[in-house]
Design brief:
homodimer, 60s Ribosomal Protein L30, Chain: A, Phosphoribosyl-aminoimidazole Synthetase, Chain A, domain 2, four-stranded mixed β-sheet, 9 helices, 14 strands
């Protein structure tokens, strides 16, 4: 394609839209289903598929490229992870672009290449899509919505409502990396070591935990609102107390330094490649071992437990004190996903 | 909710995001599945479901409200219609919002109410969602992505590749209404009669046609690029000629007048409540009767036929001449969906 920037006509439904679809999107990641270009993709249900899992996420991160990832990788990983938390085998993605008139086609190609790579790694297929173009000065170059479809085998019903007192809380690795990577990149902050986003597809990690700990209660990825939001959501859903030992939660030194400098609570900072799961105590070690054996779970740890009580989350500090781990109230880090 | 406009914190993942979700989105259209607020919705596959149909569309129409419809109604109908074209029973929608900081909560409620009404009419359920907020001056108040899931009974395989010479082309009603309604509203054009958008869910109309004409080849809704794009896509897919009689295509007089005034080819103007189907000749009358018996098909007509030849679309005028019905090349009416 000779066009160097996005034109309004690329969203017209006419020949130019066909061209950007063929030469940018299809050439980056189309398989047989997407290439059919039907209005709806027709997808087989696997023999063991008893239910469909559906999730969606729109990505408006600013800037589009930052250490460790970019908006394309996020757009795949974020939705893959949301679908995978249900215990589903994630299979298919839809993809809706909002492009700004004048956006660089070269940059769009880089975003699509990153999507293609993340989709390959996750083992998912982009099967249907849509392209809209908004006038120059609106949007922000590119926004990407993805919706994901997975299949749940019969009897699999993971949900925070199943959490019980005595259960253990397992976290797949360090917290705060993604939010700090994006904000550092945006604000031009530099640290002695660059903080890398942790954005990663965690569907294989989840599958390994489900196999090793078949009574696992639920998974959730602590994205916007951070680990604090996830734990509060768990507490609300099951009506019990979540207790976390601060010493068991991995925070990389440069992330901790950035949080101190910027006045952020690292427990409220977003992650894009971490998973929290709650398991019955007798399966905690198996779940931990499964995480640690997975590509993105080397730093996994059992970080706490569930106790009977009012729905609240508590953090036990290394100094013996306890504080309430509250949900974020205002806005801390806008546009980080 | 006391907030009068969208705040960045409404996209934070924290308490304020929970509030806008509960008090605006859930109160407008949440059923049991959405209220569970799991990261992924878990949905039953019906016994006859042999395949899953998936489609997505993002809506960036400007203005948000225009005669006959609004961005909320479009966001439901557009995706319902895309999924329904496959012959699937449309069941579930995901919904991703991109909100602009400062956008009116009252207007957002009106958009959500319109979505709820269109979803009820279509008989579909919004089961999962996402909310992002972008800074003031970016976006345009609200963009909405919906992805739709439907189920295809075993053996149903509708596709333009099945079109054969001799087949008839059936159109469910007048063309050009939606595009002209939006552009008139945006440009402040007024005609003696207001042109109303035709935005409508057509899944029930399609189901009626499939029942009456079981050998129907395919459906497509002529949205961006208009009827001309749809016919050219059909021609490409089946490798044959599409012939349409202009006299059989209904165009409302005020739409024709607007097209003449603005220099638009009505065959390239978008529709949001029309369906084209191709049927074998022996089922054409049954398909037509089924459309005419449906709420949105009173003006349905057999508008042409398929002939062997090179993939092209032709329009036969009432004066006996024939012209090639080409796809739109540039951009005619940006932001009409």
């Amino acid at each position: 394609m000779n066009d160097e920037t996005v034109l309004l006509a690329h969203g017209s439904g006419g020949k130019m839209m066909k061209r950007i679809i063929d030469e940018v999107f299809f050439s980056a990641y189309a398989g047989d289903v997407l290439r059919r270009a039907d209005d709806a993709a027709s997808l087989p249900i696997p023999p063991e598929g008893a239910r469909v899992a559906l999730s969606t996420d729109t990505f408006v991160v600013n800037p589009h490229f930052f250490p460790g990832a970019d908006i394309g990788r996020l757009a795949i990983c974020g939705t893959v992870n949301d679908v995978a938390t249900s215990g589903a085998d994630v299979k298919y993605l839809s993809c809706g672009f909002v492009l700004e008139e004048g956006y660089s086609i070269d940059e769009l190609r880089r975003v699509c290449a990153s999507m293609a790579e993340a989709a390959r790694e996750a083992g998912v297929e982009i099967v249907t899509g849509d392209t809209k173009v908004v006038n120059r000065g609106h949007g922000d170059g590119v926004y990407i919505n993805t919706a994901g479809v997975g299949f749940l085998p019969a009897g699999r019903d993971l949900s925070a409502v199943h959490i019980k007192p005595g259960d253990k809380i397992v976290l797949s690795g360090s917290i705060g990396d993604h939010g700090i990577a994006v904000i550092s990149s945006r604000e031009g902050l530099s640290f002695s070591t660059t903080v890398q986003s942790d954005a990663a597809p965690l569907n294989h990690l989840i599958a390994a935990v489900v196999e090793a700990a078949p009574d696992v209660r639920c998974f959730r990825d602590p994205t916007r609102g951070g680990l604090a939001s996830t734990l509060n959501e768990f507490a609300e859903a099951c009506g019990a107390e979540m207790h976390v030992n601060e010493a068991d939660v991995v925070v990389h030194p440069q992330v901790m330094g950035a949080c101190e400098m910027l006045g952020y609570d690292v427990f409220q900072v977003a992650n894009e490649g971490k998973m929290v799961c709650v398991v019955p105590p007798q399966e905690a070690d198996a779940a931990l071992a499964a995480m640690r054996g997975s590509r993105y779970g080397e730093e996994a740890a059992i970080i706490g437990e569930v106790r009977a009580g009012k729905p609240r989350a508590y953090l036990h500090t290394p100094f013996g004190s306890t504080r309430i781990l509250d949900m974020l109230v205002g806005e801390q880090l806008p546009r980080i996903c």
